[in-house]
Amino acid sequence: MTSRSTVLGQAIRHALIVGTATIALPALAQDGAPTTLDRIEITGSRIRQVDVENANPVLAISRKDIERQGFSSVADILQNVTAMGSPAISRANVLSAGENAGGTYIDMRNLGAQRTLVLVNGKRLGISTSGYQDVSSLPVSAVERIEVLKDGASAIYGSDAMAGVVNIITRHNATGVTANVYHGQYSQGDGARDRFDVVAGWANDHGSITLSAEHSEEKAVWAKDRDFSAFGNTARHPTEAWTTVSQWGQITGLRGPGCTAPNNGTCSYSLNRGADPLNPANYHLTNASAPDGDVSNTNEQMHLNYPLKRDSVFVDGRLNITDNVHFSTQLGYNKRESSRQIAGYPLQSSTAGIGSMSIDSYFNPFGRKNGYATPTAVAWNHRTWEVPRVSDSELKTYRAVAAFDGTFNIGERYFDWEVGYQYNKNELRQHATGNLHKERVKNAVGPSYYNATTGKVECGSATAPIANCMVWNPLVAAGVVNPYGLTGNQALIDYLMPAEDSSGKTVGKNFFATIAGSIVTLPGGDLGFAFGVEHRKETGEFIPDALAQTGATTNLAAGPTGGGYKVKEAYLELNAPILAGLPGAQELTLNAATRFSDYDTFGNTLNSKFGFKWRPIEQLMVRGTWAEGFRAPTINDLYGGGSETFTTGYADPCDTVYGPSKDSAAVRARCARDIANADTYRQLKQGNVPITSSTDQTPVPFTNGSNPLLQPETSTSKTLGLVWSPNFIQNFNVSLDWWKIRIDNTIVADSPNQILIDCYEQGIDSRCTQFTRDPSLGIVNKLTYGNRNAGFLETEGYDMELTHRLDTDALGTFSTQWSTTYVSSNIFRSTNDPTVVPTPVNGIATNTTNGFRVRSNLTVGWDKGDFGVSWTARYYSGVKETCLNAVTHPDECSDPGVRAPWFSGSRNYNERGSVTFHDVQFRYNLPWDATVAVGANNVFEKYGPNMYTKPNSVFSYYGGYDIGRFVYLKYQQRF
Known about the structure:
This protein has a 22-stranded antiparallel beta barrel. Strands 1-2-5-6-3-4 form a 6-stranded mixed β-sheet. The protein contains 10 helices and 49 strands. By secondary structure, the protein is mostly beta strands.
């Protein structure tokens, strides 16, 4: 990766000139003045210029950089950029639900993936109804280079360009055929990745066509095969975080034999292994101890990284109609398939709306039919270990761009123009299995009887049989073959667990026209301009299966999403070279841009940007920008149907052991308004048992919805930087940029944790109306959270880029690339109440983000003749997180009792150390015009620290860390 230095600018310009040499452009003056061939467009500006260095901080990843990395996808390449944050949806977050699950997304500056705009050849990548742009839909074989604008650019590109812009430039004007084969896997023998691609091109004076075709496949990695994910609290604590909602089956809420619960309480019972489930004497009080008790470790059935498969075709065509008029088109197709598996459903009759096993059920050991002295209906639990939940996702992406472009001159001034149309379409299909039909389960455990005629237990009674019903005994353990259990009983599985199919579609259409050139000559050069108009329409829908819409199954209920919006836009950009060739002002250039956007949803917005570039001496450049930005509400923000989810990393402030209620009188008093036993209240996890760590998954699902009255977010970004290219060190360049971004009127992706914090810790009464509590258990049993405009985000930091190349006659070429991002501040406030102290997330890990202060990548290379080697070190700074349990694990709680103005009471924190992953690659150019490379990412098999807050993951490990040593082989053949 290389910063925009003088050397890089010359290299890119040379590459572009060579790549376009087959296209005839107007001949200009023969006096050495720049020609149109010299002028190129760089991400962050619509004006073609001779000098690729401008006021904007831009990072470039060349095709050479891509081939020298061991990553096999565009997403992995981008995620390795130090300016990238922690994506909220990742392959390590297998519990992600909805239309975006299965995709990969880019999040710059930890400001959210929806605030980073992704372009392909300067045009928008297609979006989901939630505004996410799936970069896994792009084949890496089609990529020529990637430019990352680390600055706001709504004045240039419109909505979403708040944190930055990623522009993926595809290959064109290729000649010949290049084939690549890639294979790699983790040293544990899993997670194999295979890719085969072909790039073929043809070009002459009349035009060119380039075809890229790619097939890639990534195998699964199972959670049980890594120490950090094999158990809920890692292999360090293998007996913790198991659940009694297990595959063994369980009766709950019964005061039966041996129950000594105080105050006439009830107990839970489990079947003796291998015993007759109909005999009440065969049940014992549930043993909640792990691993040999009546418990299950759900991680045994879960993917750590789920499998992916991609097939892509990308075509780039160029036609020279005349010397001054050209036609270009890009056509793309991609099919992405993924399959996510999580543990069987934790069915709890008391919370799933199913109700108890009937007193007249043939399978109720404590009912009327099995000799129990005081017959009763019983509540029960059963995790369907026999049938893990699987969600298959298929996304087909279609992309087409057709444009006419050209040049013309008026006198000695040359102008570029382009008129075209862009079409994007995403088609999504999801197929889910493993969820239970509630009404069928209710009937299956309802009244039943033994029919002597058929020799089977059937639904209803002898006098009132129930047709179209199958009985089920949920007390039969998984793995036990029983005609009324699930193991090996496909007919019963099909009856209780109907498959669910959901679909989605988004369509984007954009007409665009632009003209650029120079107007007048200023003391420093020509005043350049670009003017353009766009008319864009986005429509989309996501239709969950009818069973999910009605809440008929245990799948997370979700309503349909559907809608769209139109926007008309016009923009103007000016580039004014004020001074040149003067002492103290070798160059002084000012840049200004503004964009007017008219949405049919919320109205108008005007966003502007200003920048400057100053060279006091030839070797030093000073640059800076100030930019306004915005993000329009997405289709899902405005018209989303809502969905249910079991929240992971959930923390109730009223918990008297881990929550602030334990030592904050103010929080305890607020909790007492809603909870009768506030002085002894405990947060419950699945199975309705008290939590044993600071966070856990909710025992009931919460509902997330939309808001049609949302307004756009607004932002202000600032940058100021230096670029130094000293003459006394050849091929050496270093840049340092300060940046600051503030986003106001944020569309808050609200969370249950934040609602409860605002209610009980911040004392914001309006937030307390968004949930209710169970009157007996005290737990939050109903909570609805949706998007809203409130509060702000603000982050600040520095980017440093250094490159050096040393050419020697005897020893070859040595190269160094060093990229570092330092985040000095990152705060947010999710309310408009100015008295609420903003919350910092910098240097802190939570279940939604990992706030690294420093990310740094250092790559050193050596090339001599046909041989080359590269070594990369990827550094992540340490963070702190809330302790797992300050009492039982004090050795993992470095900073107990921390107090701060942004939360009530005290919190226990634990410092998590930094980690550095090392990558190595060896390559050799073979005599028959081929290259072979072998390498390893994370060659020392280093693992990051355990993180019990589960940042961007459902496991106690950050979802962006390496999960093992990955060894690969690449072969490239050129024809």
